[in-house]
Design brief:
The chain has 339 residues and is of the alpha+beta class. The protein has helices at 33-44, 57-66, 86-96, 105-112, 114-123, 172-186, 234-238, 240-245, 257-273, 308-315, 320-336, and strands at 7-13, 47-53, 71-74, 131-134, 150-154, 168-169, 190-194, 199-207, 211-213, 217-221, 248-252, 278-286, 292-299. Helix 1 (33-44) crosses helix 11. The chain is globular.
Length: 339
């Protein structure tokens, strides 16, 4: 099994392709995850081709079947604009029997639906927020089983999409209004889960048979006036000016060794229960009483240079190119069942 000088096809969302540079041979004005991965794999010594996935899955399948690469680095997050279809791309690669990085169809299915994910983790005695599900077209009934405040968000999105300060609701009327907003805006079920106070932590995990937990990252809400966000909203995640205004920063969490070990054990269990592969990230809340609550799991999380997983890997002694090469090796060993 070769791990150097491979022919790697990088699958990306069609919208991320630059029309004037579809193979990412130049340097864009604003480097993207796709650019970082493609250029770094080339620098390692691999031959890299890029395929954009849009409404063209038959063409993609023919291309891969007619001239299969040594492996596929899968960076897709949706198909035809629908994030729920990301699992179908992985399923195609599984049927073609081409090695690929990241979660398979099962892992993507289990993590995509926040309701299913929390139900499954709860069955395995992993602490998650209590929640209610509100399907589209159904009357919004408020149950007495949950206590306010609650966080309302789309059940099938990721990247903090659909999460804003208005997502935290404290009354039945506000709950109904936010659920109806989610139904109208995203045309998908809404989930309302109990708001968990405490520290927001992100834990990267690498591996398959043997798992390695990376140093824990933390989102720090440092607005001492108490008026700023208390959770990672869409604007807080993606808007630099907004984070600067409200003193929201990312760094490494300072935790006691025993607590780090407990968090690592929980994250490994989550990783295995949800069938994650090669790399993933688990988002947590550490309550003031010391209880760890799993918010969600992220298969194929952002691995751009300077993002959470890459920063944590570097802290652990693995530079960016080493991280990507490690993911490539993990995927190949998993496919060929050699480790």
């Amino acid at each position: 099994m070769r791990t150097h000088a491979l022919h790697i096809t990088v699958l990306v969302d069609g919208a991320e392709i630059f029309p004037d540079d579809p193979q990412y041979e130049g340097e864009p004005t604003e480097p993207t995850t796709e650019y970082h991965v493609v250029q770094s794999l080339r620098h390692i010594g691999h031959t890299v081709t890029v395929l954009g996935v849009d409404m063209n899955i038959p063409e993609i399948v023919r291309t891969l079947a007619d001239d299969p690469p040594d492996m596929v680095f899968n960076l897709t997050e949706q198909y035809a604009g629908d994030r729920a279809f990301d699992k179908n791309i992985a399923a195609c690669l599984e049927l073609l029997e081409i090695p690929f990085t990241g979660a398979g169809a099962m892992g993507l299915l289990l993590c995509r639906d926040k309701r299913l994910c929390k139900q499954l983790l709860g069955l395995h005695k992993i602490r998650v927020p209590a929640f209610l599900s509100f399907p589209v077209g159904r009357r919004v009934r408020v149950s007495g089983k949950l206590h306010f405040p609650m966080v309302v968000k789309p059940a099938l999105e990721d990247g903090s999409e659909g999460i804003s300060n208005a997502s935290i609701v404290s009354t039945a009327a506000a709950l109904r209004e936010r659920v109806e907003f989610v139904h109208t805006r995203w045309n998908q079920p809404a989930i309302a889960e109990e708001y968990i106070p405490g520290r927001e932590l992100y834990v990267g995990v690498l591996g398959n048979r043997r798992l390695r937990v990376l140093p824990v990252r933390e989102c720090l809400f440092e607005d001492t006036e108490g008026e700023g966000p208390t959770m990672l909203t869409y604007r807080a995640k993606w808007n630099d000016d907004y984070r600067e205004k409200w003193k929201i920063n990312f760094g490494f969490a300072e935790l006691e060794p025993a607590l780090q070990a407990r968090i690592g054990k929980i994250c490994k269990k989550v990783y295995r229960v949800l069938h994650l592969q090669d790399y993933g990230r688990i988002d947590l809340r550490l309550r003031p009483d010391g209880r760890v609550v799993v918010l969600e799991a992220n298969p194929n999380p952002d691995i751009a240079y300077g993002e959470e997983v890459a920063e944590a890997a570097e802290k652990a002694g693995m530079d960016y190119e080493s991280l990507l090469q490690h993911i490539v090796r993990l995927a190949l060993r998993r496919f060929y069942k050699t480790g």
